[in-house]
Amino acid sequence: MSEILKQQIERITPLTNNEFDYILSHFTTKKLKKHQFLIQENDLVQNDHFVTKGLLKAYYINQEGKEHIMQFGMEDWWITDYQAYFNQNKATLNIDCVEAAEVLCLSLHNREKLCADMHKIEHFFRKKSNAGYVALQRRILSLLNSNAKERYEQLLRQYPTLFQRVPKSLIASYLGVSRETLSRLSS
Amino acid sequence: MSEILKQQIERITPLTNNEFDYILSHFTTKKLKKHQFLIQENDLVQNDHFVTKGLLKAYYINQEGKEHIMQFGMEDWWITDYQAYFNQNKATLNIDCVEAAEVLCLSLHNREKLCADMHKIEHFFRKKSNAGYVALQRRILSLLNSNAKERYEQLLRQYPTLFQRVPKSLIASYLGVSRETLSRLSS
After folding, report:
1. Is B95 helix (H, G, I), strand (E, B) or coil?
2. Which residue of B has its CA nearest to A141?
3. Checking CA distances to B85, which of A97, A117, A180, B48 falls within 20 to 30 Å?
4. Is some CB atom of chain B closer than 8 A to the CB atom of A25?
């Protein structure tokens, strides 16, 4: 299962098997059932998670009890409450499993240790963070431009497989549109 | 003027004067007048920009001619069209000066060279990118949660000095609310 992590790193920087084994020794593994929580609001967030199997969602519940989806996580994606993880604060997000999942867990301590030990891993995480930053800017623009149809089509283009795995209600919550609007768009 | 860049880097990692001189030798400087463009849509984006003086805005103009502000940039902030810069694509954003400005320009080539040469600079940029990622996630949540009053108060708390320097119409465009809504909130 860890092979997809190696492949992801090697799309940015080459690794020997020994180097990868060393990197992997800093991760722990976790298996979760469908609907099981990986993180709950107010938890201390110890780990970032690389998904090797399954599908998770990270979401915020507002004062009226409404869910807003911050991100999905499926195979080859990373997911956690980054604000809480990087700042070692309590979680404001919840993360649970849309499908049963397996994840590789990386503590902030081990992440910083790996980055200090291996320049190429610091390089890998910088590149991943830059790409993530650009993806979030694109999402902000799509939220500001607030044309539900365009938002829907953009998501469909970017992540076609997500649509086959995630209920419509969750897509609507990610896009910030009502279930009814989404039904109209996708019919 | 470059002293604030040194201070920013040293909040993350200590530097000798020689190291900072070496880093600084990879930047060029640019002075801009009020309303002058730093980047226009469809430009090739060669540089990231560290603001040493003044105030800029990066914005997208939609098909109806409406402006959406992606970010502001003032002293000690970085600003560019990151999607275009990191992917070496043409700009989809415009960046111009709300106030006359001075910036330090870093090409992608020089950024990558610095990061390869100096592990501590790769570390600095990774940490900055992580912090930027978290700030964008917070903004997405505030857009999804779409309570204009909370969004306004959050921005006021985060960046109090911005409000004294930026016209209300631009704050409204950043928050994704109408000018009228903002006037009601801030009166």
Report:
1. strand
2. B70
3. A117
4. no
